[in-house]
Write a structure and sequence with these properties.
343 residues, alpha/beta, Quinone Oxidoreductase, Chain A, domain 1, Rossmann fold, 7-stranded mixed sheet
Length: 343
Amino acid sequence: MKAALYYSNSDIRIVEMDKPRAGMGEIVVKMRRCGICGSDLMEWYRVRSAPRVLGHEMVGEIVEVGEGVEKYSLGERVFVSHHVPCNTCHWCLKGHHSVCDTLRRTNYHPGGFAEYIKVPPINVERGVFLLPPELTWDEGVFIEPLGCVVRGQRMAGVETGDSVLVVGVGVTGILHLKYAKALGASTLLAADVNPFKLMMAKRAGADHTIDAKGDVGKKTRDLLGRGADVVIVTAPVKAAFDDGFRSVDKGGSVLLFAPLRPEERYDLNVWEIWRDEVKVVTSYAASPRDLEVAIEVLRSGRVEVEDMVTHHFPLSAASEAFRVAASGERSLKVILHPDDEKV
């Protein structure tokens, strides 16, 4: 079978690999769609484990069921979570499934950017979700990133009537806008340096867009008369962090949805954070419950995502797909599909 082997953002090689077979408790899924995630493009993060087959926003069709698997059948359409928690450790029991050691070790083989994917027993048990008939393959790609958004906004405490500023409106930023609107946020603001993404944010429901080359904090306060109740930072750069902390209101929350590099340090004015009772939260990945919420939100149409898909590429053109996604100039969600399927 074909697979896209990642060496760097500019070096993606199509290789032949053995087609996986399902063992005891396993299933094999034929990839029908797999999205390129923003984390796939964080080269400093990904090259450490290269070469490897990336891809975790995968939906597909079950083509083989191993002995002992009773919950799933051939031909079923599924989303498969690449990471699954143990559900029994100290962190899982406290609701922090995404820091579970098991979640950080688990994965499917070889990765979503391949024609076929073998799903190990623990993922079959805890990470396979049937796609509702209402969802298209493209919509299914958004289950994982939307699940992460669901978790992040729950951690940040987004409520009906809140003003929400999203700093960085790539795919996850747009999803944050759409989900905050679904939760009943009263005013949505979007900041970015890319005019195309600001245009897409406006289409996604942003009430105001802000050119992040200017003073985002001042513009936010000019528009709202105060800071934003919740600020969500999705851009992994210090300038975005600065904009976020300058824009939050007293008693508000800042969600750091994106990281800086491990060696980077960020200076935080603890006095201002303490005095103004600003809550600073982070979120990583998604729990099974977050994914279930994401599926229902998509199924019900409360969040619509097909307008976010800007490019489709066959698996054999993965290198070009990564180039388009990494440039970000006029792209949002870039999706790979099998070579034998026309989209």
